[in-house]
Amino acid sequence: MAADPAAAAAASAAAAISAVMDWRSSPDARAAAFAYLESVKSGDVRALASTSFLLVRKDQTSEIRLHGFKMLQHLVRLRWEELSAAERNEFANLTINLISDVVGPHEVVRREGVALLNTLLPSIVSLSNSGPIEAELVAMILRWLPEDITVHNEDLEGDRRRSLLRGLTDSLPQILPLLYSLLEKHFVAALSEHSKQQMDLAKQHAGTVTAVLNAVNAFAEWAPVTDLAKYGLIHGCGSLLSYNDFRLHACEFFKVICQRKRPVDAAVAEYDAAICNIFQVLMNISQQFLTRSGMQPSSIDESEYEFATCVCETMVALGSSNMQCILSDGARTFQFLQQMLEYYQHYKIALHFQSLLFWLVVLREPSKAKSVARVSGDNSAAGNSASTGDLSTEKEKKGVSVFVTDEMYSTILDVSFKRMLKNSGSQSSGLLELWSEELEGKSDFCNYRTKLLDLIKVIASQRPVIAAASIVQRINVVFGDANQATKSPKDLDAMEGAQLGLEAVVSSIFDGSFDYGKADLEMKSQLHKIFEGLLQQLLSLKWTEPNLAVIHGHYLDALGPFLKHYPDAVASIINKLFELLTSLPITFQDPSNSSRLARLQICSSFIRISRAADKALLPHMKNIADTMAYLQGEGRLLRGEHNHLCEAFLVMASSAGIQQQQEVLAWLLEPLNKMWIQVEWQTAYLSDPSGLANMFADSQFMWSIYHTVTFFEKALKRSGTKKSTATPQASTTTAAPGYLHPMSSHLAWILPPLLRLLRCIHALWGETFAQSQTGEIKAAKSMTVAEQASLLGETGKVTKGQVAPADGLLDVQRDGESKENNIKNWLRGIRDSGYNVLGLAATLGEAFFRCVESSSVTLALMENVQVMEFRHLRQLIHLVIIPFVKYCPADLWQVWLVSLLQPLFVHCQQALHYSWSSLLHEGRAKVPDSIGNLSGSELKVEVMEEKLLRDLTREVCSVLWALASPGLNSGLPSLEQLGPSNRMDSLKNLESFASSSLTGFLMLHVGVALPALRISVEVFTWTDSDAVTKVIPFCGALIHLTVASNQAELRQFVAKDLFSSIIQGLSVESNSVMSAELVGLCREIYVYLSDRDPAPRQVLLSLPHIKQEDLLAFDDSLSKTASPKEQKQHMRSLLLLATGNKLRALAAQKTTNVITNVTTRNRSSSAHHGSSAEEDGQIGLATLSST
Predict the structure, then answer these.
(1) Among 100, 223, 941, 1091, which residue's Cβ finds the most Cβ atoms within 10 Å?
(2) Which residues fall within 8 angstroms of residue 289, CB to CB, at 6 or more apart?
(3) What is the pTM (predicted TM-score) of this model?
């Protein structure tokens, strides 16, 4: 390589880099400089090499050197094959001299293989002796090589990855001692220089120690634990836990090891010895912290708490995965459990939370625990060690539970009940840091509390008496003075938390994994005495304040499972609930509606008790019915409350069988039938949309209609047999012969007026009637405040017991409010429940689809689809259209689905195309929705508009997903069945799939197929990854249908339009999550259609950076493998090459592969794959990838 031309080229490249990096450069100058650099990278490979080596010299600036490193990496990864063997060796030697960049040697080894590593090792060892800086860089090389095993890279797959793993495993006897010597040498040197006040040198050595720890941690993910122990790394890292500068990195080493699984080969004894050593190391350092924390909590700063959290997390991983290694040592096991209990009790929520995860694992039933309560692998492995013996094996079988004392159980329960609270700004539990939103990296409070409740249930199933006594004790504490008429918000929170604990304990004992029926008489007597005493205490309470009444009702319904075994208590609970209900006044003046809300909540307690107590309430149905009739006759039971109690009746009847359900339904629906089928109100109010204006003037009748529709919804939800987990299509065809859903006979009179009602509501948005509407009705068509808040993400989750609008609160909100809001809430409620009735009715299958005319349904739903707002259209699709698609019998597809889907798809395609175009090109989604009055900035409106657009887009794609579901396309053969040969004489007409594939059926109907196909290609240009995820199965079904059929138009669409769109979708970075699926679709199109149609090759050749020889090489690669995975990898590489690495969805993809324990015995075999672990961002060379 000539010096002068090379130097000139390097100078030009350096100037171009400076221009790109200089903010003062003009856009044109930057573009020209960038183009020049790209030309260097794509130009002569030897000129690229010489220029890159000159750019990384130490006299260059850091920005220029960094770009030089990237160019070297580009050369090795993408143009390595262009160098001769001699040039590659020369390149490798030059990279050793450029060790400061550490890119070169690493890339060379990963490309050339581990044989070169063995050649370079002596040079690497020699270099590490040169000084702390060189040693640090050696450590970085040794770190990045094993990370190439655990971090997925597209150019390192299959055999190459396995080869690197085998080579590194064989090199462990050289690498691990080197790492230990570097660790020891530079740690001692750092201490020595520090004692001499040579702080700069001390920092250099400390930096080397940290780099070596990072390298050790990379090997700890897969290297045999026995080797890590053998070469002193466990001892070395354990020694560093006492030093502030290194303890977090050292702890990370143990955290990685502790997640490893016990081997099942002869090395188990050595593995156990190493793990036992780790137990002792961690317990020693943990005890130091716990002792100081208990005696002098104020002396511990945040950095120590951070380290303690890391240690605790490590011990959780160790105990969860490797507890069996120390079970033979009772004293050590007990000490470990005691420390984990102290963490669970700890003031700091972070330490408590980590310990919670441990106790959840180890207290599971021994037969269900994954790795703690029994030996991993076969039992004989544990007996290979003479130190364990039969006693050890027996203890391992029994697990940890034999070491957990009753006192431990009680302590865990006590802490769990106290921590059921959330920090509301004031400390309510003394020296106890409650859950707060500031905890980063943890699940939200609901998930945390769910884990607490899971733990309570586990303990209750193992120690029911202890759990029962503990929860009653906690209830007594939070109740305080039971005669106190009101409670503070803090007290109410504590009472609600204790109620959740009671529900968990009762359900676990009487309706959970604990088999109460098989318990001995003494235990049953103790439990009955405890809960009978609690029940009497609850029955004696005289709370009348609404909030307290609601909590009182929840405490009573929490005892539901108890009633299954002790039905004598049912009558007293029912009477108490009615007493609570009637103690609360029906008031229409209270702005907060607290009293009426509380009454609804108490009625919902009847539903929960009916569900939990099973048949225990059946003897009391007449008494409940009589009480309902009495209260209703006196005007002391509102319609929404009556609906709740009727729903409870349906739940009770479901436990008695279909006959009882039919009788109860007939009794409950008879009075509704008389009103609902009357011609007079339908003629007056439903003849045309203007009739609704007259109904709006009669508020009482309007809300009566609402409650009738909501009860139809409840009846459909609560009746029938238990829902099957089978696929929708299967569940409609496998019902018992002669089975008829209890609601089937009622659909004929329920549906016609409902369809007329919905048709009138839809027509309110039509231009024909919009002009004549009053201002109140026009305003009522805008969004409710709740809908606005939901779109802005400002609404909280519905907590347990909270009543949703459909439960009867919409009419409550009308009192004291404007007529506009009254109508608005009614419209929303009718639409919610009306759509739900249709969707739930569709799940009955033929009983629905053959009892009503499809034309009347299509008219009601699609007549005004073009003027529907996006929020309503999304709701219609979700609640009605998708159930129709899933449950419509195949012989009725023509009658039902074509007429419904054609206008829907035509309108949705046009509306979505328009709105997405405006969003992508003008920056704002144009949607037809009436937002209404919204306080705040215009930005909120734009956010809501975009949310409406995305929600509708995803729902439309969900219809396509449903159309492609396997249960509705059973006649569509898999590509494996078809084979790659694709003989023309074996292809079928599209009509042959019409009865066994819904996708195939719809492709025969152009009016439905064309807009659906347009949506399926346009969605890839819209920047919504969720929508793309939903449309992928539909695209897959289209490809399968195309391969199996001889339909020319469909083949042309898939081979050209769909193929191009999918590739275009890969240019959207947000699609990186499903990039593998998209590449898989590309592979299927090319492999199975390129021989039948020239379009796939034409599409690829139209990409900007592909050459004919690249495509020929790709074909050759495909011909050499039948593995879909390898073919997908070839397709991925080709797409990156053909687009000049511009497919951001592929460039952004970085997944992690984790290698589990590699034993000496298996070093010559492929890697063993175990449970995956997450990586915190890109590691190693990923951060230096070319841009």
Answers:
(1) 223
(2) 300, 304, 307, 308, 311
(3) 0.77
CA 1159 to chain centre: 34
Contact call for residues 128 and 177 (beta carbons, < 8 A): no
Of the chain, the end-to-end C-alpha distance in Å amounts to 27
Tens-digit pLDDT profile for residues 1044-1080? 999 999 999 999 999 999 999 999 988 999 999 999 9
- Mean pLDDT, to the nearest integer, of 584-595? 76
The secondary element (H helix, E strand) that includes residue 469 is helix 464-479
Distance CA 1101, CA 1095 (A): 10
DSSP class of residue 281? H
Q: Is 815 exposed, middle or buried (0-12, 13-18, 19+ CB in 10 A)?
A: middle
3-class secondary-structure state, position 473: helix
Q: Which residue has the tokens 């339908």?
A: 682
Sign, CA dihedral 303-307-312-317, equals positive
Q: Is 632 exposed, middle or buried (0-12, 13-18, 19+ CB in 10 A)?
A: middle
d(CA 318, CA 337): 12
CA atoms within 13 A on the CB side of 283: 20
For the record, the structure tokens of 755 come out as: 């369809």
Contact criterion met (CB below 8 Å) for 300 and 340? no
Averaged confidence pLDDT in the chain: 84
* Nearest alpha-carbon partner for 1013 in 1042, 984, 989, 987: 1042
Q: Which amino acid is at 804?
A: A
Q: Which residues contact 779 (CB under 8 A, 6 or more apart)?
A: 820, 824, 932
Q: Is the pLDDT of residue 378 over 50?
A: no
Residue tagged 């009983």 (tokens): 847
How far is Cα of residue 693 from the mean position of the Cα atoms in its chain?
A: 45
Residue 472: Cβ within 10 Å count? 18
| Cα–Cα nearest to 889, from 933, 942, 850, 947 | 850
Taking CA atoms, 459 is separated from 405, 467, 1021, in Å, by 12, 7, 53
In contact, 313 and 258? CB cutoff 8 Å: no
Place of tokens 């948005």: 765
Rounded CA separation 1015/953 (Å): 9
List of E strands, 1007-1157: none
Is the pLDDT confidence value at 1164 over 80? no
Distances (CA, A) of 32 to 21, 36, 75, 99, 732: 13, 6, 22, 32, 65
Label residues 199-237 b or e (16+ Cβ within 10 Å = b): eebbebbbbbbbbbbbbbbbbbbbbbbbbbbbbbbbebb
β-strand partners of 1169: 1155
pLDDT: which is higher, 3 or 1187? 3
Measured between alpha carbons, how far is 567 from 587 in angstroms, rounded to an integer? 35
Provide the token pair at 548.
């307290």
Q: What is the predicted pLDDT for the residue at 119?
A: 66
Residue 376 binned pLDDT confidence (cut-offs 50, 70, 90): very low
Q: Look up residue 723 and give its two tokens.
A: 């829902």
Which amino acid, residue 15? Answer: A
Which parts of 931-1073 fold into alpha helices (H)?
Answer: 938-963, 975-978, 998-1003, 1006-1018, 1025-1044, 1048-1052, 1059-1065
988 has which bridge partners? Answer: 1045
281 contacts 254 by C-beta, under 8 angstroms: yes
pLDDT tens digits for range 182-209: 999 999 999 999 998 988 889 889 989 9
- Degrees (nearest 5) of the Cα angle 332, 333, 337? 115
Is-contact 1172 1099, C-beta < 8 A?
no
Structure tokens belonging to residue 199? 């702080």
**Alpha helix (H) residue ranges in 129-224:** 132-150, 158-170, 172-195, 199-220
Comparison of pLDDT for 1109 and 1153, the residue scoring more: 1109
Partners of 422 in the β-ladder: 435
Place of tokens 């050369």: 75
**Cα 10 from chain centre:** 50
| The token pair that represents 677 in the structure block | 């089928």
Question: Quick one: DSSP state of residue 614?
Answer: G
